[in-house]
Amino acid sequence: MEGSxxxxxxxxxxVGIKEIVSSAIHDLAxxxxxxxxxxxxxxxxxxxxxxxxAHGSDNSTLEKIEKLxxxxxxxxxQFLLFGSRAFLQNLAAEKSATNEPxxxxxxxxxxxxxKPARKNAKKKKK
Length: 126
Description:
Helices cover 50% and strands 0% of the residues. By secondary structure, the protein is an all-alpha fold. The termini are far apart.
């Protein structure tokens, strides 16, 4: 990101699966009012795995992700998409707290209006 606080969509690909899984676990647990320990107990995923995935230090397996997704009532893909969205929302909240831009400014085109008169147009004789 080269010293810039701005995020472009191409930089989203730099976000690793660990960050996405971590965001999904934290956000989904929070939405359901569950602690990580309760997620562990109720999902059947091991405590060390839950803590590792929640902190982005565990290499998540597809089996663990699918087990967590099923626990939260989602498919594996939905779980990862939810995590991606949660990650970006959390990042946006962090950046807005520091008044840093989150997304590069979009190019906004002016709406089409009447074609402006040419500067060097010949004046019509009356």
